[in-house]
Amino acid sequence: MKVGKFITLEGGEGVGKTTNILYIKQLLESYDVKVVNTREPGGTVFAESIRQLLLENREETISETTELLLMFAARAQHIQQVIKPALAKGHWVLCDRFTDATYAYQGGGRGMDITMINWLEQQVQGDIRPDLTLLFDAPITVGMERANKRGKLDRFEQEKQVFFEKVRSAYLERAEQNQQVIKIINADQPLNNVQDQIYSVIHTFL
After folding, report:
1. In the chain, what are the domains?
2. Helix, strand, or coil (residue 17)
3. What is the DSSP string of 115-174?
4. How far is CA 22 from CA 2, 18, 93, in A?
5. Is 193 strand, coil or helix?
6. Which residues are CB-contacts of 113 (< 8 A; sequence separation ≥ 6)?
7. Mean pLDDT of 160-168
């Protein structure tokens, strides 16, 4: 039986998830909540190895199906080894990206069959779903300008702007369909303003 709460952070490249995840962790801990901080793809040693396979630039083209299955393979390991045990202990799990990212990147960006993604979600996750999702949203040009400043771009970050426009649209569509869980954070603002929005969402949720 799930006891803890599961919070995910979503959004495209350069929207500030990594910048704000520590702030959210500290905010939750100020309410005397035990927080497990993790990410996808990754979160375990094995899943991090899959992450490296997915993000590395390589000459061989990775098929869309391979990419999707690797995402869910990493997720299966992550859920069994980290997420489910933490929730069972009553801990709160704070995860940088989860299945909404698959719907956005592989479904929206790659144009893959949503029915296939949905089937994999059911098979791999069972009843594991986020209790709250913070969707960090900013114009693609803003996000990519920030991403470029971080250094060498990974395999996903090197996609064309039209890919990221599709990703953003898919994210916003997910938010429209699931307004009770997914809360949009306007990430095209100064950090203080972004964190004010985060505080308001977390405070209301608690």
Report:
1. 6-205 (3.40.50.300)
2. helix
3. HHHHHHHHHHHTT---SEEEEEE--HHHHHHHHHHTSS--TTTTS-HHHHHHHHHHHHHH
4. 24, 8, 13
5. helix
6. none
7. 91
Q: What sign has the CA pseudo-torsion 47, 180, 146, 23?
A: negative
User: Residues, the chain, total?
Assistant: 206
Task: Evaluate if residue 15 carries a pLDDT over 60.
Answer: yes
pLDDT tens for 52-107 read 999 888 888 889 999 999 999 999 999 999 999 999 999 999 999 999 999 999 99
Please provide the DSSP assignment of 19-56 as one string: HHHHHHHHHHHTTT--EEEEESS-SSHHHHHHHHHHHS
pLDDT higher than 90, residue 151: no
The tokens of 16 are what? 């500030």
Q: What type of residue sits at position 69?
A: L
Paired tokens of 111: 């144009």
Element spanning 93, H or E: strand 92-96
| Alpha-carbon span 39 to 55, nearest angstrom | 14
Average pLDDT rounded to a whole number, residues 178-194: 96
Q: Is the pLDDT of residue 171 over 60?
A: yes
> Rounded distance, CA 79 to CA 124, Å?
9
Residue 190 CB neighbour total at 10 angstroms:
8
